[in-house]
Amino acid sequence: MSIRNHSRRIAASDGTPDSVSWQDEFAASVRGLVRRNELLSNYTTLGLGGPADIMFEPADEADLKAALAIVRKRKVPLKVIGGGSNLLVGDRGVRGIIVRLPPDLISTEMVGQDEGVWVSYCAGMLSVAAYRHAIENRLVGLEFLPGIPGTIGGALRMNAGGRLGEMADVVEGIEVMRVDGATYIPAQELGFAYRYAELPDSAVITRVDVLLRPAESREITSVKERVQQEIEHRRLTQPAGRSAGSMFKNPPGRHAARLLEDCGLKGESVGGARVSTEHANFLINDGTATAGDMMQLIDLCRNKVRKQFGLSLELEVKLEGEF
Ligand SMILES: Cc1cc2nc3c(=O)[nH]c(=O)nc-3n(C[C@H](O)[C@H](O)[C@H](O)COP(=O)(O)OP(=O)(O)OC[C@H]3O[C@@H](n4cnc5c(N)ncnc54)[C@H](O)[C@@H]3O)c2cc1C
């Protein structure tokens, strides 16, 4: 369906003339950056994905509210992208609005408490920048983040983590904005599980609150050393090239990479999409892949693992848009 037809289909029923597309009304109602038909391949680490009808970077929180008012009025679908490091976007792109938060939509705040220091980070901030901020302020708890690309908002959504911890260990709560306003969700209500957090539909996480622990110089030095070792470990074990990290979740008690390797899938390819020869759970775009190639390779991997081991591999990467 063309973008024009789509605009007409979701035109307003509140008196706004049908001739005014939702895109035009949206662009006229916000102050932030509005890009039309923006190619999402430029915003995902896989380098895949067709155009978003609109990509929007709000100027401030009030601007995000203004955007959500149009989303409500015109019933336009809304999605959020962080660093795009855990996303496979379809070749036909995403209908509606993709929100991308600037790193400074909300300024960082710190409040000392008996149990530690409560820090509020803007969800659009890079995860590694949050770690650096914590270390500069002699706070520990975020040392699992360097090496994981993307934003704090994306890390929250995915309950991102690794050998040194995960988001669920430190998060106290988040602020989300939806069409019906801003809400605070405490960590206990986020249903954290392995690479999973529960969020209401079309919720934009704006702020992530974490509880960190003050540390002496000696501990800070040893944390920095551990982080360096972890980064070096990743450099040696993870393939370079365009990927979204691990494509599949580890089934309970098993390693997805080992299952894929045991099926002889290393080096398997469909078009420009290839199973890495270094790490079988990394599916790489060699620069010529389409999202369709990647989906076919995913299906091929799942089918082989199901046939050989009777196990159903679940995607860790989120699928978005039309394929
Ligand atoms: C080389 C490489 C290594 C990786 N290693 C790891 C690892 O060790 N551990 C790990 O857990 N992951 C890893 N990943 C995956 C990925 O980096 C993490 O999941 C990361 O936290 C995703 O953050 P992002 O900002 O890129 O999210 P995106 O990919 O942009 O989005 C992921 C999901 O979060 C949602 N989202 C993002 N921001 C918001 C927001 N503000 N509000 C609401 N929803 C939002 C998106 O809609 C989407 O559903 C790796 C990826 C790569 C490429």
Your description of this structure?
The protein has three domains: 3-100, Uridine Diphospho-n-acetylenolpyruvylglucosamine Reductase, domain 2 (2-Layer Sandwich), CATH 3.30.43.10; 109-236, Uridine Diphospho-n-acetylenolpyruvylglucosamine Reductase, domain 3; 256-320, UDP-N-acetylenolpyruvoylglucosamine reductase, C-terminal domain (Uridine Diphospho-n-acetylenolpyruvylglucosamine Reductase, domain 1). Strands 6, 7, 8, 11, 12 and 13 form a six-stranded antiparallel beta sheet that branches. It has a four-stranded mixed beta sheet with strand order 1-2-5-3, with no helix packed on it. A hairpin with a 7-residue loop joins strand 15 and strand 16. The two termini are 13 Å apart. The radius of gyration is 21 Å and the shape is globular. It has eight helices and 17 strands. By secondary structure, it is of the alpha+beta class. The model is unreliable at 1-11 (pLDDT under 50). It has helices at residues 3-9, 22-29, 61-74, 127-136, 152-158, 217-237, 256-262, 291-309, and strands at 33-39, 51-57, 78-81, 87-89, 94-100, 109-112, 117-122, 139-140, 161-162, 165-166, 171-178, 181-186, 204-214, 269-270, 273-275, 283-285, 318-320. 43% of the residues are buried. Bound molecules: flavin-adenine dinucleotide (FAD). Flavin-adenine dinucleotide binds next to strand 3, helix 5, strand 9 and strand 13.
